[in-house]
Design a protein that fits this description.
It contains 14 helices and no strands. With about 300 residues, the protein is mainly alpha-helical. The chain has one domain. Helix 8 packs across helix 10. The radius of gyration is 20 Å and the shape is globular. The termini are far apart.
Length: about 300
């Protein structure tokens, strides 16, 4: 299990670069998501064809691979819209509610139920997330476009993780990524055309950043995360991705001169501890012998 965890860690770091690039606002939100997928597809498709990894076991798997691509495309598009309509902090917090949706869906519909450690770790990690971004953020929450699209982004993302896990049990990561990117590119291309977003006329720096988004934040990141998802529980992967917020905050401190406070450091520590709890295999229990002496002391 060491290799999937290392892949997940590197993949999360690559994803964490994405908010830094989006904050520069060199391209509109949906068209940025489209080129992230389309450029990635242009790079991976020749390799998949050359290595003969375009075969699928059934039309059902093809449909699920396409569905996962559509869900991920909507996730990225709605997350970008949420950032532009509100703040990156609010959008990131709402999007990162995805472990909750994954846990609830797994509990209701799948046989492999989340463990007690998952729920304990989720609560700790979410508290760490809230501490990281600041409790005052909730006072400014408004049920506007940014809020709605932020929640939708988390729901689409959790759906993507659930569906892609099913597909990855049947096909290779390269095969899955290729067909998923096809669906994402087509879906986002149609959305960009429908919303009359420009497909060109960008600066050289904008094109460069679109390329970085595709290669680093999409292709590299999600090849690694998909590999981890193929070998790990969906609930663990969804919660581990929460650490993206911590890494993004550190990168913003380096490249955007954003301030890192003691509260953010404390929130990051709590967040990482919550994630660690979910990777602890033995159930967390409080033995009667631990708390009985305390009762005797009290009375």
């Amino acid at each position: 299990m060491t290799k999937p965890r290392i892949a997940l860690l590197i993949g999360i770091f690559a994803i964490s670069v994405y908010p830094i690039l989006i904050k520069l606002e060199l391209t509109p939100g949906v068209i940025s998501a489209f080129y992230r997928m389309a450029i990635s597809l242009a790079l991976i498709l020749p390799y998949a064809w050359y290595t003969k990894q375009l075969g699928l076991p059934s039309m059902k798997i093809l449909g699920l691979a396409a569905l996962s691509g559509i869900l991920f495309g909507f996730d990225v598009a709605t997350w970008n819209i949420s950032i532009l309509a509100s703040t990156a902090t609010q959008a990131s917090l709402l999007t990162n509610l995805s472990p909750v949706w994954v846990g609830i869906t797994t509990f209701l519909f799948l046989e492999n139920k989340p463990t007690k450690n998952f729920w304990i770790g989720t609560l700790i990690a979410l508290f760490g997330m809230v501490t990281l971004v600041g409790f005052g953020v909730f006072a400014t929450f408004t049920f506007d476009t940014g809020f709605i699209f932020g929640v939708l982004s988390g729901i689409f993302y959790s759906g993507y993780l659930m569906v892609s896990k099913v597909v990855l049990e049947k096909v290779s990561v390269i095969t899955f990524m290729t067909y998923s990117l096809m669906a994402s590119s087509l879906c986002l291309g149609i959305l960009s055309w429908f919303w009359d977003q420009p497909f060109g006329g960008f600066s050289n720096m904008a094109w460069l950043l679109l390329g970085v988004q595709a290669v680093v934040c999409q292709l590299l990141a999600w090849l690694l995360v998909s590999f981890a998802l193929k070998h790990m529980k969906t609930t663990r992967v969804s919660l581990a991705v929460l650490s993206q917020a911590l890494i993004t905050a550190f990168l913003a401190w380096i490249f955007l001169n954003e301030t890192i406070t003691l509260q953010m450091i404390l929130g990051g520590i709590i967040l990482l501890f919550g994630i660690r709890v979910t990777f602890y295999n033995k159930p967390i229990t409080i033995k009667r012998s631990h708390w009985l002496p305390l009762l005797k002391m009290r009375y």
